[in-house]
Batch of 4 targets.
Target 1
Amino acid sequence: MTMVSPGPVTVPPVAGPPPTDPAPAPRGGRRRRPDDEGGRGIVSPGEWRSPVAGTLLRLAHAVLLIGLLVVGLGPLLWLVKASLSHTQDTLRDPMALFPSGVDWANLATAWSEVHVDLYFFNSMALAAGSWLVQLVVATTGGYALAVLRPRYGPVLYWLVLSTLFVPAVVLLVPLYLTIIDPPLIGVSLVDSFWAVWLPAGANAFNVLLAKRFFDNLPREVFEAARIDGAGPLRVFWSVLLPMSRPILGVISVFAFVTAWKDFLWPLLVLRDPDIQPLSVRLPTLARSIELDVLLAALTISALIPVALFLVFQRTFLRSAGLSGALKG
Amino acid sequence: MLTWIRRGGLSTLLFLLPLVVVFGVFSWWPIVRAAVMSVQQTNLVTAPVFVGWENFETVFTDPLLGTAVRNTAFFALIALVFGYPIPLVAAVLMSEVRRWRGLYSAVAYLPVVVPPVVAVLMWKVFYDPRPEGLFNTVLGWVGIAPQSWLQSADTAMGSLVLEATWAAAGGTVIIYLAALVAVPPELYDAAEVDGASIWRKVWHVTLPQLRGVLLVTLILQIIGTSQVFLEPFLFTGGGPANSTITVLLLIYDYAFSSSLGGDYGAATALSLVLAVFLALLSALYFRLTRSWSTS
Amino acid sequence: MRSIRKPAAAVAAALVLAGMTACSGGGEPTTTPEGKTAITVVSLKPGSEQAAFDAFEEQVRQFEAANPTIDVTTQEYEWTGPTFTAQLAGGTLPTVFTVPFTDGAGLVERGQLADITEHVQALGYVDKFNEAVLATGKSADGRIFALPTEAYGVGLQYNRTLFQQAGLDPDEPPTTWDEVRSYAEQIAERTGQAGYAEMTQDNTGGWMLTTLTYALGGRMQSVTGDQVQATVDNPGAKAALQRLKQMRWEDGSMGANVLYDWSTINQDFAAGKIGMYMGGSDVYTSLKQQNGIDPDDYGLAVLPLAPGADSGLLGGGTLAAVNVKASPEQQAAATKWIDFYYLGKFVRQDAAVQDAKTLAESDQPVGVPKLPIFDEATLTQYNEWIEPYVNVPLGQMSSFTEGIHGQHLAGEPPAQAQEMYAVLDTVVQAVLSDPNADIDALLAQADADVQTVLDRG
């Protein structure tokens, strides 16, 4: 469950398989000429060559790139700089470059003494567990609803989809009370990773994505496998899942990103500092540790997802194009 | 019974088990419980008491509710002013980029991958109200007087929106880019035959083609911003003088901020009111996506 | 449906049990496998320095050595109004935890604390407590649910280095509020830092407004029989807010940051960004442990009180209480811990010496000014016992330690103090963030709002 993002009230504009690549992100050298393979844009080749329009457009692009770099990259570069500076430098002249030298110790202090390493591990564990629970619920549920199709399936599917209309905020208090005193087991889940992992699974959007994708897979494949003697489990594991890589990727990115960003829910249910993720722990620490160490801790916390993004850029942007607004 | 099992009824159930358990315990049951709790007085110590509409009365007579609704609406409004046209202009321009388009979208999307808490704590430093603060230093370069940012009721909300827009705009840009790629090139060819300029092509071809996406992002943004919590909670705690208290922050305060025990009834009552409002919006959203994706 | 539910229950239970063992969260066992009584106690505030945690761990070892049947787990903890309830409701409070005096009665009334009367009586010094202080943790019928562990009076914290830089004598802190104002202006002018700052968030704004109001002769509540009346709209409060308004907007001596809570104002003070602020007399411990303040910077003065019989110094304190969910064995063990860690040192020399020695060896503050929770003589005796170990700059606190005896101490408002403080936060923030704030209107509105809180009970 996510409290920070707009909540589960979101469905992608396109939810059918396979997700088309809406934002091709060509690598540096490869040009994508507007007139290649009919893939032209608003501006025609003739206009590109025109001295006025073409120049203006190039100028606009240059301004845009500079603007994007200043706004998108600038703050992060500043953060890196500040995390290597002395507190007093950052306070007195935040825009100066290392007036009294570089302070490498901040990063080490943040990592080991402030225990960013521990909170980072907790963030990873929370994200990984939420991801796994979401994947299990979405794939098994989607498989049963789309392929096995029990008679009560439509009712169940409707019940799942109806939760899309209930914003996360309604769940805040009753879900919290449920976690304190869960039915069936009677032991409080507070201060346990399960308090975050399990509610994360109740994500109707994932079920919807998975079911729609499975719906569109050719049924003959499943029939053939069944005639060959494969049981439902075997069909699920050896036929369905291998065919579903694209949608699993999309769900995974969503799951990981939301879990990494979640704040209010882990704040409520993880009170023990030793199991808190970075998002919960950093605001507490910000109230006591020195500024340079805090900024170093922020740098570490920001650079890891940024690095992941740069490596898996295409997957990230494809998911974002599919439903970027999910991240509000 | 046996034939039911042989026909796969049991294994189907087993496959549905994770879904049913997880949704049952962590979604359906809490939703029902929210409805029940909104007409009860619950403090977790003594047994809940039925109180009828009393919780709703508490909420609607709370002078803070008006403030919170106004603030939330104000946040949503200026978030639209900042966060709606800028990504659109950027996306239209970016769709025409011929070299390094990947660089453009990567840089635009970068703030979105920064964890929100990290972004807020970083921007809190940017918003240092002293003349030596980062933003005030930059403003000083162009001769603008230092601003109070988060420390004044007049500028606090604007400052929250600025950060929120920075953190979210990249996502909107990528959605628009996706939609722009899907505009059929023949439409531009046809427009050129009629002698349309670049400007007219944007106005008469591109924007009408984006109408569906624009509506959807509009509603999504309103749904998202009416639940804003993180920014006011971490930046200002609702201050100064309640100028940034939002509906969700008020719900949180009802439930958790009195040190002698929370008012869970009022909290759930207010969250249900907000939910009805959001459900109406999302119903609208579903209608629009349906008509849009079939058109 | 039956067939769905049963396996569902089994699977859910199995999943959860697996999680429990995997990350040791969840339930709180009352005994360890070796049959010891397990209790959880409050350690230090988040972000304290490692040496402070080391010293604390050493004290835990001493306690466990003396009580081999008790197993102590520690938990980092800081009481703030807005975070306490989530812990209370979530059942994540330690077996022994601390709350301010203001919340003792309310928590007792709501049945949230364990009755520890018998265990406390066994300690043998219950009759030595200052009766008024002990009453903050007692129920109406005289049962003991919480024990006072320390009491503070609010003092004026000031930065000696900034005083010097501003051309002020650090050994002559201000003695009137007019002096506070002119000193603050001088500091702001000559050093560029905030001359004076005030807490405004998480109920601390109301706490400090009440302190200043007391100091100027006002009171926030009046009690007749069992009726409590809000008197927020009083001349003292008005004078207090007008002073803040003048310093903030006419003199420009309060800096630009108006959103401070307890932690962040300490943080900025230790970083040399604040000349003076009001804070508890015992805050030095936290300034040292959490914020690493340079001891040479630190000065503590007695709070100036306006002339007149009505002015008073706001004092408060901390109660140690035992979780209502604790088993009888845990309650007994918890009370032993309260004796060992918080109270025994005041009445037994060996305990006092051991405590002071352990702290001093890790360079943790010993000898911070406190107000008596027992009688005056007991505190004097205690101060003598620990004298060899005192390592805080007591000389820089002499204005407080000497001046406090002449001051009229006044307790915090008797009813719903924290909720009232929350209402007053807004008033203080409005005055400090809006140059055109209408003090009369704000006070009238706050008075009505507080009355509503009081009437709701």
Target 2
Amino acid sequence: MQAFLNDPMAMILLTGALVATSGALLGTFLVLQRQSMLSDAISHSIVFGIVVVWLLTHAQSGPLQIAGAALTGVLTVFLTEMVARTRRVKRDAAIGLVFPALFAAGVLLLNLYARDIHIDSHTVLLGEIGFVWLDTMPLAGLEIPQAVVWMTVATLVNLGFVLACYKELKLASFDWQLAAALGLAPTLMFYLLLGLTSVTAVAAFDAVGAVLFIAFVIVPPATAYLLTDRLSLMLLLAVLVGVASTLCGYPLAVRLDVSIGGTMASMTGVFLVLAFVLSPRYGVLGHWLNRRVKYSG
Amino acid sequence: MVTQAVQRWIVALSFSAVLVMGASGARAADVVTTTGMIADVAANIAGECLSVEPLMGPGIDPHLYETRPSDIPLLRNADAILYNGFNLEGQLGKVLARMAESRPTVAVGPESMKDDDLIKGAGGYAVDPHLWMDASLWARIVPTVADVLVRVAPDCESGIRSRAANYRQQLLTLDEWVSASAASVPEQQRILVTAHDAFRYFGLGYGIEVVGIQGISTDSEAAIADIRSVVDRVVSRNVPAIFVESTISRRTVETVVDGARDRGHDLTIGGELYSDAMGARGTPEGTYIGMIRHNTRTIVESLGGSVESWPGSLPSFAGSGRSNAAE
């Protein structure tokens, strides 16, 4: 077991698979509720949290910084909802209003008070999936990479949430009014979903970096969406596409000797394009064949 | 049970990944450094005794470095690791700290410099890490690097020590050459404007005022106020040229040139300087001494001075470079 945990390649793949799984579980609902860009918004607005925590504590990294970043993520979601609730702007515009404001506030503070200090989102939250095997912690007599521990926790919590609230999440995603009328608390579900996204995002940014996590949240569910109409199957396919991207991305990165996170993220895009073209029902190719069959017959 | 099955599956896939990657150029070395500047010092001292390899090749900005898969075995199998320190390798900090637990891992900057040598940012927090810009400072890392190499290869001690003494002498000769060359620039024009603040040690060491258009981190972009104040200084001091750096885009620098032209001051781009990375391997600029020679020539000649004749005790760079040509 320890030999397995000491193998860099196994740990990189395991971390990738865990991030993909935890991301796809939440991402499926985010994509269905048209909230997927919140994961990107969070990645920008946490700069604000990082700068504020630095101004308060002078900590350039560490648990305080992570907590600050997670709180800023929740703040982003909360502010977005507040703006959207006024009904003066649509929700996508609300996302676009809130995260640049927080990001800009962060950059301003950085320029005003920390001009000569090398802090940015990188120093706090630039996880590099290539080095996850290095940062270990003792647990149950084993030395386990921290990223694996925290992403396992995130995956289990997210899985528990989806299983426990499956009915509520499903109805909130497809018929908000009905969910509210039936007393299924869609707003609460929404906050739970985005709160978990925010915390998972920060854990994942720390483990593997922002772009890879955003790719895992959005692209595999979007791919699964092209392949099925059933929610349970979409969840499963999203997880599978995410894990498959990890497993295909790594050897490709090794072969080309380029960024591991970058190739994993690129592989999610390859799967999306494949689904886009080849999906039996929604694929471009299927459509074209269907039409030909219809008109020629 | 399930976890074991998953484990076996992942391990099996890992092995197939190894098969797929086949003989893709695995890099290996006894001593691994972060930047090319440190690698060149180490390679000159190590001679045939130890192999040296930098993580960050030509043109790679250490602030923005991304890990490649071949870096992983390179670091894991290294007998010693040398890095610059003072936060130059920001995102690698954690990795280097972990590496230090299992092998000699030395930050050559903090290890070699005296407190008075350092240029500090506001509040005393950040130290400018671009130490290699002053050859007399960079000469100080030579004994530090030599100590580490001796720890790894005690059998080579006498060779390492003598090559170190010789190389240190070369860097001091280089330092004198840069000083003398910089002094040939008319005093009013001794001002070096570049995109980011990588040249402050160069300026301090050789009596040239340095104006950086953006801050220390290559992440942040220049603010409009920064650009305007730079244009003001360039016009009022009648500066003939400003410079671009090999790791940073030309755009910021070109904005300043346009701003100065709008005010009727003819400003040229003085050429490309090597700031955070050296030139391509096998070229003179792919060595530390060649890089400093190139920067000095470019700066001095663009600002209206003329360089001293190149000292005979330094590599002449005639033909196709030296040891580094073996790639």
Target 3
Amino acid sequence: MDWVFLTELAINGALTGLLYSLFAIGLVLIYKASSVPNLAQGGLTMVGAYVVLALARDVGLPLWAAIPLAAVLMFGLGFGIERVALRRLAGRPVVMILMLTLGLDIFLRGTTLAIWGGTSRSMELGVSYEPLFLGDIFISRIHLVGAGVAIGLFVAFMLIFRSRTGIKLRAIADDYMASWSVGISVERGVGLSWALASVVAVAAGVIWGEIQGVDQALSLLLLKGLAVAVLGGLDSILGAVVAGIILGVVENVGADFLDPLVGGGSRELIVAAVLILTVMIRPHGLFGHHDIERV
Amino acid sequence: MQQKVEIQPILSMNSVEVLYDNVMLAIKGVSIQVPKGKMIALLGSNGAGKSTTLKAISGLLKAERGRVSRGEIKFEDTDITEMLAQKRVEMGICHVIEGRRVFEHLTPDENLTAAAPAGMSRSDLNGEKEKIYNYFPRLAERRNSLSGYLSGGEQQMLAIGRALVTQPSLLMLDEPSLGLAPFLVAEIFGILQKINQEQGMSVLLVEQNALAALEIVSEGYLIENGRVVMNASAEALKSNSDIQEFYLGGGEGTNFHNVKHYSRRKRWLS
Amino acid sequence: MFYRLSGVHHANYVSDSRIFKVPADRNLAVFVLLFGLAAPFIVPSLYLNSYMLPWLIWTAAALGLNLVTGWAGQLHLGYAAVMAVGAYSAIHAARFGVPWEFALIIGGLASSVIGSLFAFAALRVKGLYLALTTLAMQFVMDWVLTHSPTITGGSHASLQSPTLALLGQEITSDAGYYYVAFGWCVLVTIFMLNLKRTGLGRALVAVREKDFAAAILGVNSFYYKILAFATSSFIAGVSGALLVATFFFLAAPEQFSVNVSIQVLAMVIVGGLSSIIGSYFGVALILLVPGLVNGIVAGGSLSLGMQINVETLAHIPNAVYGALIVIILLIEPLGLGKLYGNIRDYLMVWPFDQLRK
């Protein structure tokens, strides 16, 4: 057993996992603020990455200006999604809302590709590909940057959910009717959560676009994001971060053991297995809330 | 039996009709006046339209796909019939909805924070919280535990406290006594009366527990099948033989041999 | 107007449990059935085989999913995986020399067995969590298919389906394929129409509305959930096998990928949960309209002399497909079946519609 190699696998796994968290945070944000499952986060991430590229390449802005501007635009898009689509389905059964977000996901993906085409583009953030050596362990710089962004967003959202606005968002997730009755604008709250998730999608789109290129494959991260979100507990931001690290390590180390046995490509399998096992054993995840039932 | 109220009404509802889903007529021309600073009770049996009346006033009808199809609702001389629920809360109408729906995953303290109006400063909010904890000392003890695990009475107190944070001038309560032990009902009603007297807050109380409600209010309306069938002072209502028979559990109607007589009388009443 | 009824009023239980509660519905069904039988003689074979045939088979499949999602209320995002099991088992059986009749049944049964595994997830969780679990199971199944050359047929991952033969008759003509699809769809439809009237159908609805309340009433929700999954999986398996045997002719894993699962669910929900006629509409909309819009856009841009990027054109159907789901859900969350019902109810009393203001 090569311990150095294993440590390297674990550390890089943890960093990749934090990038999954980046994705999962978008899911958790919306679930925490409106108890709506957001299966459109994959599509949103794709849109986010393409908008950044469009601003940088087609308009010619420098990246440091394009990314915040894209974040602002996506913030508006998030509000728009609530206004046009979710508001009218508020309070409907989860099947319909699930389908709505799936439809949104398909629509966003299709529209993005229809506008910008399906060929993979590169983000070119300018992060060096020179690996970083930590003793004998080498670490990818862009993963490190992404992990930093994930943790930064985590801290920011933890602070937001402690604030008065954040408490109102959590109240909305608990009970729409009671929120209306004390004058909380449920519509604005849900819109805000979608807007924030769309901003997170820009961050995820930029980092993942840098790693694997900006194309349709960005939306396939949804399964990993879902697995992380469920493992951490769908309404826990802390859970999304911790579960991201766990999933990343399990996936990276597990794939190293399993790949030779099954002939490669066992990552997807591990992620799916984690998702199934979590739901079967502990549906509310590591840090999620039990639904409180009193008779 | 109608006595003219001299005090200017804070809320007046004129022959309001409510349609659910565009087909179900839930209340059929209800007119109610709440005088400023008074406590008014809305009595009636299940499905009579009491909760719908409150929802029409607070604007929560929209969430249940209902709408006011006729009549108008005025609050402090402003027509609020079509106003957003949120705006009405800002104007000072707060509705404590049925079934003690507190935010279960939040602590009582956070429940109160969640209801704070947008412009309220932190120190004002803290002052408001202290005031509420003074009214409901039981809540203060459990201010940092999860609201979902509070007892029924504590949850009802929290729901009322949460409404008080919005600084209402008209507080509407939908069956606060539901499923609570009699001593708790008495405690909560006592506190309501205290708030009414100390702050001059008008209260509109929907109750099935007419006996308890008539003890604290000054005037009551009786609603049956979506219509107001009686409006009188609490004293007059308490001594009315029909009310005694049907709502207070007294009178001669308790004899179940007279069940036919019972239903005939009831039909006449509506 | 066309219905000439002033409403649906039942005076006894027999009339209440009729399949078609309005005579006009029955007439319409008979008319559609006759049209379906005569279609090969009326409809050009291009349309018959590239539009009507897939429409019928997908409708059968969607009805199967409707059984488990619409009637029993269990979200299922792994339906395509179940179809894949049926398709591959049936084709392997047929290649092995088993007559097609039995091969189809083997496919259905194999699907039932695997599909019941999904039911075990449904016993543990419901709603969103069930959707996520079945989604993950779909991914596992995709993975198994793409990583087992013995199932999917070697390095090209495509498996040739042997010529379909039923009742000793080889089927090779377009009309023949069509009639097989038509027969299967009619069979499933009749089964679903009758399901409503049986104890099973009522038990499923009880489980959907509140499973523990159903349990209190003596409905064994454990048993009925598994039964619902097994039955719907059987329909899925046979539909999957027929889809390959009469339409694709080659089985490939991407025909049953996660996107297909989402597509079938979209068909069911856009059509309307637990609405049979809705499933017909939903499949037609999801299957046919995106292509149609693409044709219109392509034709329109040609006639206007505009040059539309090939890639743009290739992705428009997807955007339209997503938009359709969103728009239908926003217009009528209960789907096209409900819209049809609304129109029917309106016409039933027209022009004497005094009830509406």
Target 4
Amino acid sequence: MNSVTAAQKEKQAAKAVSTRRIAAEVVEKVGVLLVVTFLFLPIFWIALTAFKPASEVYSLSVFFQPTLENFSRIFSSAYNFENFYFNSSIVVFFTLLITLPVSVLAAYSISRFQMRGKQVFMFAILATQFIPLIVNVIPFFIMFRNWGILDTTLALIIVNLGHTIPYAIWLIKGFIDSIPKDIEEAGLIDGAGRMKVIWHILLPMARPGIITATVFCFVITWNEYMFALILTNQDAVTLPVALSYFVGENGVIWNEMAAAGMIYVLPTVVFMLLVRKQFVKGMSAGAVK
Amino acid sequence: MTNKYFKYLLLAPAFLILGTITIYPLIRSFWISLHEWNLTDSLDIGEFVGIDNYLQAMGDSGFWNSVTVTLVFTLATVFITIASAIAVGILLSKEKPYISFLRAILIIPFALSPALVGYSWRFMLNPDYGLFDRIIGFLIPPLSGVVMLGTPTTALAALVSVAVWIWLPFISLMFISGLMGLPNEVYEAAKIDGASNMQILFKITLPMLQPIILIASILMTMFSLKQFDPIVTMTSGGPGNSTEVLNFLIYSTSFRYFDMGYGAALGYILAIMTIGFVLIYMRRLVKGGEWN
């Protein structure tokens, strides 16, 4: 008798455990589904809209004859979207071209040498990022107007640098900190100059950090909206500001804006996916330090 | 060349650029904030008025409205993002093939332009043909007739949802890397001791995540206080001024009404608010001994 109830109890307990496991499994699946829906449904919907003919935009239908017309429209003389693509590319290219060498050298110096006020400097550049950027735009607007460089890509490059260099220094310094000094010292003993050591030994080893910083600065510059909105109005307009051209008198031309949006976000999404792992590691390490 | 000068030489370009591009305008901006200066009246800086612009803000109901909107927006965004990011982190830190695929594409929303996201939300919340509008109406019937961007509360809620959408992936990834770094033995020991899932969550997981929670809160607070792009493209501060966060008020004061003096003063007030928040977190960080 006794042994039977014990066996039954065990069976019941096992059953309870398995129902609990199934319940946990269901909760997990539903949770994941919710997350995926929340994060990716908007992207999916915009991507879908980019291929819709104008007649289908105002319906929720998923089945329609896909068309590439929206894409050819945005590059036609109606919008000349390639001009804004060009402006954005120029701004990003020169911002990165200046940011990276400057930040690598500064990060190396801060990481490797004892200096008075080093901590203060690191904290100060972090603090500049706490301050809302709009505070800086006000004097810049006036200066640029006086110098006659409002509405030029040069103006955008200048203001972006104040944004990218602090982040790049923090990110790259974190990586250089983790590279052992011995290897460089061996190079120095062999008689190579400091610059040679930086170029031939340090740079290859710090590459993951530099790539992370590059992608991060690329994304923030490519997506930068406030400076472009305030400092440009015609010649130097970049992609995010150009999106407003799809807002017409009779409302927004959503299918064309969606197509433009897809073309616009393509580079950042691709680059971000390529360096995703290092990026997350680098960002959280930088933040903790 | 000796190390003595070399190290400063390496630092010099960064020092010069940041000095001229961030420090100088900051000081200049403060100087402007002490003056009366409307760009439509004069191209030259006006009369020195001391702290009058700051005093003007204290008596300006538009300013106080913006402070309230900013605080509500920031607190809601930070809290919802962190709480959801912990949940997402727990969900997505398991070792399963489809979950590791999700982790790989999780960063995508973070790479999208916030300005574009703002427009997209406007599209999807459209009362006539918006997908979100339809879904919300289906899930919460009382909201089915409401124009989402047309009433103050729903517009602010929409704004919070945009900010959460933008930052959730990145903050989740921070928690995922934290959770995957936690030692597995602790969990196994707790399970053997018969701890329930809830106990494990509150007694083990959350305390171990505390340093990341603090850092994520600092980042999120900074980002929320500065939020600008999706506000311009989605609500432009409306309806009325119900979504006019301080950053937007500064923008419209300075670049729509060209009141540079008052705009700069408002900018400094926002800067002081941000630094205040950061100091509060920093003190907790230092007190908790998590600063390594």
